[in-house]
Design a protein that fits this description.
elongated; 7 helices
Length: 213
């Protein structure tokens, strides 16, 4: 229990630091949009060629948000969307920090549960549910944020590594949850459950690290 309290305190501090930083790669895109808006001699490209499927549903040329005049595809509205994107990505980072600490707490409790302390079963389930909520909320902030102005540059980048790792840890998170519902009837799945959970945490932690450094 002391470990959980400590993890929560660290989470609050980490979240505060992230919100205080308020840094993202978008300011230079804001400058680009401003310069393009001032240039009336060339047609303005407001959306990148490649955006996520989830972003296309909401923010594509015929996305759901385009049915509202406030989000019509104009330079002014795109400038507003980039501010929304910045806010959502800050939330993505903050929720990610909280979720990673929740994963640590879940791992500590889970290890004791595996060692025979059945009194922790309900606590483990409650903390795991909180992690699930935090994890998929973190993903939603990134998946449904408005797209940036430019396509990604070719070659290696920390953003691409972050996305590749996201595919890995999301797959492991889904597998962990599916297997968790079958552990009572099939205890042989416990090693797979634990391996998937640890892999999810490892990939999630590294994905956070490549963005920071």
């Amino acid at each position: 229990m002391k470990n959980i309290v400590l993890a929560l305190l660290i989470a609050i501090i980490a979240c505060g630091n992230l919100l205080a930083q308020k840094k993202d790669s978008i300011p230079q895109q804001d400058d680009l949009l401003s310069s393009l808006t001032a240039d009336t001699t060339h047609p303005l490209k407001l959306l990148p060629d490649h955006i996520l499927f989830t972003q296309r549903i909401l923010w594509g040329q015929k996305g759901l948000m385009r049915h509202y005049s406030a989000f019509a595809l104009t330079p002014e509205n795109r400038a507003r969307e980039l501010k929304i994107r910045r806010t959502m990505l800050i939330c993505h980072q903050s929720m990610g920090a909280l979720t990673s600490l929740g994963m640590i707490a879940t791992g500590i409790i889970g290890a004791k549960l595996y060692n025979g302390d059945r009194s922790l079963k309900d606590l483990h389930g409650a903390v795991a549910t909180g992690v699930d909520i935090g994890y998929f909320s973190t993903a939603a902030f990134a998946l449904f944020a408005p797209p940036k102005m430019l396509d990604e540059r070719k070659g290696y980048s920390s953003i691409k590594v972050h996305k590749w790792l996201a595919v890995l840890h999301m797959s492991c998170m889904i597998f962990t949850n599916v297997v968790a519902d079958q552990l009572e009837s099939n205890p042989k799945l416990k090693p797979w459950h634990r391996a998937a959970a640890y892999t999810a945490f490892g990939a999630f932690f590294v994905a956070e690290g490549v963005i920071k450094f």
